[in-house]
């Protein structure tokens, strides 16, 4: 994930901490899935696949805005299931899908990856993302199964599973090292929050955005829309 520039020196470090948001603001952070209007709490298969697709796009070393625009390009063209994506084929994914989203640096490679993941999802899991969770024996096996998909590494696995912690019993990835480092700098004890709660996931999303320098814009977007329904007590390359 692209790291935010950090001021050097004791005075600059103090100023950076003073400019950081309060914990209460981090607890209101918009989830990356919510930013894309993906309702993971609904438990619907279509929402899970859309989040997997978004996670694959976010997982490359590419600007988050481009990943979001490309995801929306998939939606505009109705490519929202593994079967529809496979039927569309590689040339159509490269152009117009990737081109419309601005995903040109890795367009061919990413199109190939998405097609292969969709194929494996159909062949191994009956085309249902939820079956990946159902077939996993525990949290470690779930991560292993994610890593078995073509081109999926630790970062993409973390992006996909971290926002599913409150909803999938076996989803419980450790926060990314940059998240724990930033929390430590801000004197936030992440161990005081249960990791599988929505509050923890929101704090985590806020810390990722803070590192990317776009935390305040996400909070503004959240304040301008209806609050998502609360689940139980509280919650990326690498953004999202």
Description:
The chain has 240 residues and is mainly α. The protein is built from 14 helices and no strands. The protein has helices at 10-19, 23-26, 32-35, 45-58, 64-76, 82-88, 90-101, 107-125, 130-135, 139-147, 154-162, 177-185, 198-212, 215-223. Residues 1-16 and 225-237 have low confidence and may be disordered.
Q: How is the CATH topology named?
A: Endonuclease III, domain 1
Task: Give me the strand/helix succession.
Answer: HHHHHHHHHHHHHH
What's the story with the biggest beta sheet? none
**Total beta strand runs:** 0
CATH class category name: Mainly Alpha
Ends: how far apart? Answer: 8 Å
Category by helix and strand content: mainly alpha
Please name the fourth-level CATH homologous superfamily: Hypothetical protein, domain 2
* CATH architecture grouping: Orthogonal Bundle
Question: Could you list the spans in which at least 5 consecutive residues all have pLDDT below 50?
Answer: 1-16, 225-237
Radius of gyration computed on alpha carbons? 18 Å
What is this structure, in a nutshell?
This protein is an all-alpha fold. 58% of the residues lie in helices and 0% in strands. The protein has one domain (22-223): Hypothetical protein, domain 2 (Endonuclease III, domain 1, Orthogonal Bundle).
List its traits:
disordered N terminus, Endonuclease III, domain 1, 240 residues, mainly alpha
Present the secondary structure layout:
Blueprint: H1 10-19, H2 23-26, H3 32-35, H4 45-58, H5 64-76, H6 82-88, H7 90-101, H8 107-125, H9 130-135, H10 139-147, H11 154-162, H12 177-185, H13 198-212, H14 215-223
Helix pairs in contact: 4-5, 4-11, 5-7, 6-8, 7-8, 12-13
